[in-house]
Design goal:
Blueprint (H helix, E strand, L loop, with lengths): L4 E3 L4 H12 L5 E2 L4 E7 L4 H14 L3 E7 L7 E9 L8 E11 L6 H5 L9 E5 L10 H5 L4 E4 L7 H14 L3 E4 H5 L1 H10 L3 H7 L2 E9 L11 H14 L3 E4 L4 E4 L3 E8 L9 E8 L4 E7 L2 E10 L8 E4 L7 H8 L5 H10 L9
Parallel strand pairs: 2-6, 3-4, 3-7, 4-6, 7-8, 8-9, 10-13
Antiparallel strand pairs: 1-5, 5-6, 10-14, 11-12, 12-13, 14-15, 15-16, 16-17
Helix pairs in contact: 5-11, 9-11
Length: about 350
């Protein structure tokens, strides 16, 4: 990365041209596949957000426009800075533009007008909104109107129920594509379950499920404290796909569905695994079949699958979930097209679950 230069907003493009003229001598090539707008309220999570943006740059060069809003600043300000960022390791000679906009106070209203001239025409625009969308903010509407795709981080939501209602309302009122980092983080488990029940015989077993137990990693960090979201997403997804109806819940995250189906969300602590990450899923059926899928402690991204019944025990096999580390979920959601129908149905299913469980 070039050293960040604080400059007047009117000089952003001219200063970038000068930087690139110098980098041309180093055989650096300017590249950009899309525009990525990031909105962040200054906090302990800001460096974490910048880190996941860097992971995007490592995979796909783009023009980053990073907005940092500081509501606690004693003096109002508006400042802009530019830099050129290369993928980690600097290999390949490719780099891209990184424009920072820092703001506090009444100048917040000027941000969309400063931003607009620096969006590269004819390239897609994604908005990473890292704050709770259920909390009104004056920049959300103007920034969302610029984007074709909005990516939320449900970790920022104080109430998962309010988050779900807000996102569903946004989708119903607009044609914009919606994505969610925690939804992307459950993709491996959804693929695993789809592959497990990929035959007619196994599909029949789905109708006989009477127990679902999901275990998640309860190790909290300064950046992740709403640790049950991914497991709640997975349970709600299963419920929506299998058309279950909730009858009763408890404060211990135990759920009773119609037809005698029981669901439970439990916790373990794995220090080296991402906070909130699903560790295992166990399904049992009324006729004695058990499907156990659990991460291997020494190989976190590999799941050991054991299937048994009262009559036989199949040979265990393994399934690789893939990387769900910091930033990879954002990369996935940026390159995915459209809005997942399963995601929207899952959000609707959350409205069935006990509201006290979702706060």
């Amino acid at each position: 990365m070039t050293i960040q230069q604080i400059i007047d907003p009117a000089k952003i493009e001219s200063e970038l041209i000068q930087i690139w003229e110098g980098l041309a001598k180093e055989n650096k090539m300017r590249a950009c596949l899309f525009n990525l707008i990031v909105f962040n309220i200054v906090s302990a999570r800001t460096d974490y957000i910048r880190n996941i943006v860097q992971k995007v740059i490592d995979k796909f060069p783009c023009r980053v426009l990073f907005i940092s809003f500081d509501p606690e600043a004693p003096v109002p300000y508006l400042k802009t800075a530019i830099s050129v960022v290369a993928p980690a390791g600097g290999e390949g000679g490719i780099a891209c533009d990184y424009i920072d906009i820092g703001v506090s106070g009444p100048d917040l209203q000027r941000v969309p007008f400063i931003l607009l001239p620096h969006l590269i025409p004819d390239l897609p625009i994604s908005l990473l909104w890292t704050e709770d969308p259920s909390q009104e903010h004056p920049l959300f509407v103007p920034l969302s109107k610029l984007a074709q795709r909005i990516i939320f981080d449900s970790e920022s939501a104080d109430s998962l129920l309010s988050f779900a209602k807000t996102v569903l309302a946004l989708k119903s009122q607009t044609n914009i594509d919606i994505a969610d980092l925690n939804w992307a983080r459950t993709e491996g488990w959804r693929d695993l379950m789809a592959s497990t029940f990929d035959s007619a015989e196994r599909c029949d077993q789905l109708k006989k499920i009477n127990l679902v137990k999901i275990t998640y990693n309860a190790v909290e960090t300064p950046f992740f404290c709403h640790l049950k979201i991914q497991s709640m997403y997975l349970l709600a997804w299963l419920s929506s796909r299998l058309k279950w109806t909730v009858k009763k819940t408890s404060k211990s995250f135990s759920f009773e569905f119609e037809n005698g189906i029981h669901g439970a969300i439990e916790k373990e602590e794995w220090e080296k695994l991402g906070p909130g990450t699903v560790i295992s899923v166990e399904l049992a059926t009324s006729d004695g079949h058990i499907y156990k899928s659990a991460r291997i402690p020494t190989q976190y991204h590999t799941v050991d699958i054991q299937i048994s019944s009262s009559l036989q025990c199949e040979l265990p096999y393994q399934f690789v979930l893939g990387q769900t580390a910091t930033g990879q979920s954002l990369v996935k959601e940026i390159i995915t097209k459209g809005t997942s129908h399963h995601y929207l149905e899952m959000l609707k299913e959350l409205n069935q679950l006990d509201r006290d469980r979702l706060c």
